[in-house]
Design brief:
Radius of gyration: 22 Å
Number of domains: 2
CATH superfamily of the largest domain: Immunoglobulins
Structural class: alpha+beta
Protein name: DUF6759 domain-containing protein
Strand order of the largest sheet: 3-2-5-6
Oligomer: single chain
Distance between the termini: 47 Å
CATH topology of the largest domain: Immunoglobulin-like
CATH class of the largest domain: Mainly Beta
Strand content: 15-25%
Pfam family, one: DUF6759
Largest sheet: 4 strands, antiparallel
Length: 257
């Protein structure tokens, strides 16, 4: 019994160390720390009255003095927009799904309209495709590992018909509100300076690959289930296990950011 008590004490102490210490949160001027506290605090926590305005002020000050190329500016602007209408920047799964849906619907509708306007202009399309292929190849050579360059180019070099079919599939999935549906949307947002290939591996032979150019985002329709997400981002390894039952967005930045 004594040994059990000692073991239990060590477990409790270890768990406490892993928990974030917010004992000095009222003195904090750290954007990320205050944001994290507000996301997890009880809705009636009186500290919110002080911390929310402080976070808004800190975000505004940061944006005002930030460098034009600072990638955190967009993220902080989004946080400010959320704080204007909500107690914190915490987003529910339902809200995240709706954000992904609306972004993708707008994007792919625009692409379909552009494709429709270019019917009969195959020469121009072919020329643009060649230019795009050359640009992608140059960028890929500079930013991807040698063993992934050809794979990235192959994934990017789809025919107009294949691209249109994929677009239609994604739009159909976005408009499908059936909770019992067997498919889900995955959106990958590549904020890094490097092209990347996101590998999504499930049970058995269920595997997907998605090429995502630098500073862009791409989406794919996958079967619902548990997957291992893995990629190389500017040479750094990324891996994460995710269970897909609803639309999700995975955002990756430069290593260390």
């Amino acid at each position: 019994m004594f040994l059990c008590f000692i073991s239990s004490s060590f477990v409790n102490l270890s768990a406490q160390k892993k928990m974030k210490d917010y004992s000095l949160i009222m003195r904090s001027t750290n954007i990320y720390e205050i944001d994290a506290y507000l996301k997890n605090a009880h809705p009636d926590d009186p500290k919110r009255i002080i911390l929310k305005p402080r976070l808004i002020k800190l975000l505004k000050e940061y944006i005002k003095t930030a460098h034009p190329a600072d990638q955190r500016v967009v993220d902080f602007q989004e946080k400010l927009a959320l704080l204007r209408s909500k107690p914190s920047t915490k987003i529910s799964f339902e809200e995240m799904g709706e954000i992904i849906k609306q972004k993708q619907i707008a994007k792919y509708k625009e692409e379909l309209e552009a494709k429709s306007q270019n019917i009969g202009q195959q020469g121009a399309v072919a020329q643009n495709s060649a230019t795009l292929s050359s640009t992608v190849k140059t960028t890929a050579s500079a930013l991807l590992d040698t063993d992934e360059q050809e794979e990235f180019l192959m994934l990017m070099s789809v025919s107009p018909m294949e691209h249109k079919n994929k677009t239609v599939q994604i739009l159909n999935s976005l408009f499908d509100n059936d909770p019992n549906g067997k498919e889900s949307i995955v959106m990958i947002e590549n904020k890094s300076d490097c092209n990347m290939i996101m590998r999504i591996e499930g049970v058995g032979n269920t595997r997907y690959r998605l090429a995502v150019p630098s500073k862009e985002e791409s989406a794919i329709v996958v079967q619902k289930g548990s997957y291992l997400f893995s990629s190389k981002v500017c040479g750094a390894e990324y891996a994460s296990q995710k269970t897909l039952q609803k639309p999700i967005m995975v955002s990756l930045n430069n290593p260390g950011q």
